[in-house]
Write a structure and sequence with these properties.
By secondary structure, this protein is α/β, with parallel strands linked by helices. The protein has 20 helices and 14 strands. It has a 6-stranded mixed sheet, sandwiched between helices.
């Protein structure tokens, strides 16, 4: 994208069970705004996997939804629409009929991708939203027709596989068409035995790699985790996970119920109730065979991977692994809101120098994790200007809190949002209602780090980069010196820091003495 004007692009994932749409406005700097996300259950793979023929009714439903999604994309101004089809289309003998109708009726050029390509795109979509650090993860995605298995770290994948173990396929193989009763234990056992046989080669490879954690994606895994969360009263504010011990109790309950009662289980998606046991058999067997005690659950998938691929191909994101997911998501948010990036970078540089020098003087004992959050918060502290300069610190808090920053948990997002909120005006206190949802450690981080951020912001108050360096120096056990060097007179910055002295003293229990090589 050499053109500086934004471009709208649509991405359509035509799965065996559902069709998903993502429409985004992409800017020349690589930031993007999601304009629409849609999902429709069409059951393209309905009754297919016995003879590999997609039935006419399923084709009709799929073409209708794809036409609707394509029209919606174009109404948003999409100049490009990328559509891919997966397992059901991949295996269909009448694939050509489906593709021809897509082209004629929906004006869509649909690519049918291989299982390994599906796995690669899912890996891109899921891994781009999780902070793996130096860990290697096992990724499991159970779709309607297939199950994709990936192993990779933040930089790339080392293993991709696709197995015919999707929820619809498993249901059709082991349950009579239109089955509405419970699922007998022997039938569920046959499902699990089938999965165990199918994954032998994959299981051996995964065990050789010994990944550090497991991440499950797609509707089946998410819905099973949602049922478990309700069944075991798990904290809805925390990262959604699924324990193996919980999954076993969930599957036992689901198998015991007829379809009409299964649809009433708290947390279940009623539209998925007829196929969820087939998907559960795949996931439970995988977790047993691979010794997985718990899976993180991700909402992302193939359509997100299509976006990541598009951005990379057009030079809008650094190569995989060159920039971590947390930094990428913070940059994306800041640039999408048109922040003053030069000012943001100067404030970040100053605040990190203050953090490091304060730590050397034992003014605080915080570590790398807190430093990292301070770095991100300082970059985003003025993002509220996007709404209005008036009370922009409050707008910054709102935007950071609600932007769904990838790679961060809710506690980290809350800490960063509150750092930004308290970078000006009122000084935070432990008893503030705004901090009521934070634990004591998080409150301490907000109070101390927002004090440093206030000072750093004041040292570039004029947004002209007059201050060339700033650090804390020892005075005595009651006081800390702030040594400032500047290009020229920076009286405005000195005045700003003087107004922050009270906040510093409340946060660290020491007086702040300001001294400068120039500017006084």
């Amino acid at each position: 994208m050499n053109d500086a004007s934004p471009k709208v692009v649509g991405f359509i994932d035509i799965g065996t069970n559902s069709i998903r749409l993502l429409v985004v406005r992409i800017n020349a700097n690589g930031s993007y705004t999601v304009l629409s996300q849609e999902k429709e259950m069409v059951r393209l793979g309905e009754a297919e996997f016995r003879d590999n023929i997609i039935i006419p009714e399923a084709i009709d439903r799929t073409v209708l939804v794809c036409r609707k999604f394509a029209d919606l994309s174009r109404r948003y101004g999409a100049s490009e629409i990328y559509a891919v089809a997966t397992s059901a289309a991949r295996d269909a003998k009448n694939q050509a009929e489906l593709l021809e109708r897509m082209e004629q009726e929906a004006r869509l050029d649909v690519s049918v991708i291989s299982g390994r390509e599906e796995a690669r795109l899912i890996y891109l979509g899921v891994s781009s939203a999780v902070n793996l650090g130096k860990k290697e993860a096992l990724f499991v995605d159970i779709g309607g027709g297939s199950c994709e298995i990936m192993i990779g770290d933040q930089k790339g994948y080392s293993y991709l596989d696709s197995l015919n173990l999707g929820a619809i396929r498993m249901t059709m193989l082991f349950l009579p068409e239109g089955h509405k009763g419970s699922v007998p234990a022997d039938v569920y056992g046959k499902m699990r035995k089938h999965v165990k046989t199918a994954i032998i080669r994959t299981s051996n490879r995964v065990k050789e790699k010994r990944p550090d954690l497991a991440i499950a994606s797609s509707g089946t895994a998410m819905n099973l985790a949602q049922i478990a969360s309700r069944m075991f009263n798990l904290d809805p504010g925390k990262q959604l996970t699924l324990r193996r011990s919980h999954l076993k109790k969930v599957t036992a309950l689901l198998c015991s119920l007829p379809l009409d009662k299964r649809r009433e289980v708290p947390g279940i998606n009623p539209e998925r109730a007829d196929i969820i046991i087939g998907g559960a058999a795949t996931l439970e067997t995988l977790m047993d065979e691979l010794g997985i005690e718990e899976c993180l659950i991700s909402e992302r998938g193939l359509r997100d991977g299509m976006l990541v691929e598009y951005l990379a191909q057009h030079g809008l994101v650094p190569p995989s692994g060159e920039i971590d997911v947390r930094t990428r998501s913070v940059l994306q948010l800041g640039r999408s809101c048109n922040i003053d990036e030069e000012h943001a970078e100067r404030v970040r540089e100053i605040v990190l120098a203050l953090f490091d020098s304060a730590k050397m003087l034992k003014v605080h004992t915080l570590g790398d994790w807190e430093r990292e959050l301070l770095s991100y918060a300082s970059y985003l502290h003025d993002i509220g200007d996007f709404i209005s300069f008036n009370n922009h610190h409050l707008h910054s808090h709102y935007i950071i809190s609600n932007a769904e920053l990838l790679g961060f948990d809710q506690r980290e997002i809350a800490i960063m949002a509150n750092m930004a909120k308290f970078h000006r005006k009122r000084v935070p206190r432990r008893g503030d209602p705004e901090l009521a949802g934070l634990d004591e450690q998080a409150k301490r981080v907000v109070i101390t780090m927002s004090a440093l951020l206030r000072v750093a912001e004041s040292l570039d108050r004029s947004h002209t980069g007059l201050v060339t360096s700033a650090r804390f120096v020892y005075v005595d056990r009651h006081s800390v010196g702030l040594r400032i060097e500047s290009k020229e007179d920076c009286q405005l910055e000195f005045w700003g820091v003087e107004s922050d002295m009270r906040a510093f003293e409340k946060a660290f229990g020491r007086q702040l003495v300001v001294e400068g090589a120039k500017g006084r």
